[in-house]
Amino acid sequence: MDIHRLSSFRAVVEEGGFGRAARRMFVSQPAISMQVQALERELGEQLLIRSSRGVEMTPAGAVLYEHVRRIFDEWDMARRQMSELRDLRRGRVSIGCSDTIAMHKLPEWLKGFLGEFPDIEFAMHSRHSRQTGRMLQAREIDLGMVTLPLSTPEVRTTTLFTYRDVAVFLPGDPLDGLPRLELADLLDRRLLLPEEGTHSRAHFDADLLGAGLFLGDMMQFGGVEIQKSFARAGLGVAIVPDFAVAADVREGTLRSAEVAELQMRSIGLAFVANRRFSRASGAFARHILEREGRSVDFEPPE
Predict the structure, then answer these.
(1) How do strand 91-97 and strand 143-147 relate by DSSP bridges?
(2) Any idea what the CATH number is for the domain that residue 112 is in?
(3) How far is residue 174 CA from its own chain's centroid?
(4) What predicted TM-score, i.e. pTM, was given to this entire model?
(5) 153 CB contacts (<8 Å, ≥6 apart)?
(6) CA-based nearest residue to 10, from 85, 82, 73, 86
(7) DSSP codes of every residue in 146-192
(8) Which residue among 39, 94, 146, 291 has the highest number of C-beta atoms inside a 10 angstrom radius?
(9) For residue range 26-74, what is the model confidence (pLDDT) as tens digits?
């Protein structure tokens, strides 16, 4: 199917004659006539009838015109949407990250970005870091925020920010007022820990082993907010990321203290190596890296 033949046919119908169609298309009238005749031969149907009132469509011509109109409407829409993507007026970004990052970091990142690009759509998938890596590998999401290091084939990471796990407890607890603890200070307390199988738990267990210590009384949970809830109830000392408890400490509902043996951790931006980003995904990646002061050595593939 020749698009020029369809354009000529459409112009004749909408302009009501071959002469006006030729002027609209900036071609000669014989050229328009030839295009329409070629279309009629291709389809094996007469499409137009000349009359004293101009040009009228045959029943076949009327059927074809409805389809042609929709074809060109869709084409115009496609061109408009691609132009909007180039100008970053529209787009979609799919993200994978933990509940903790989604609650305590993602809102501030999105607020700034959507303030500049309000029509970009976001889809958020709450997953642990390893699950996020697998989703990236399967091309199910565009970007991930993960605990580093992450070893997933094809997935590349770059550091977003660093943090430290801290001990969290009620105001007035015997630990309150101590600016810095040691793991040995916690061994006679019930510890509220991340569940096994997560990066956070693996890091804590490694730090504990490195100090030559072993777990005593403990409970494990599938989310930081549950750990904090149990700490508020006075049921133990939670080990959670410092950024996830900062607001609670400011409000005075919880206290926190650094633990000497717990090492600094990193959260990274993860993406598929050599996979082209959409303009929206690339812009969001740059936005969050800039907000975290980490944009210098990163340029997403577009």
Answers:
(1) parallel
(2) 3.40.190.290
(3) 43
(4) 0.67
(5) 137
(6) 73
(7) EESP---TTEEEEEEEEEEEEEEE-TT-TTTT-SEE-GGGGTTS-EE
(8) 146
(9) 899 999 999 999 999 999 999 999 877 788 899 999 999 999 988 888 8
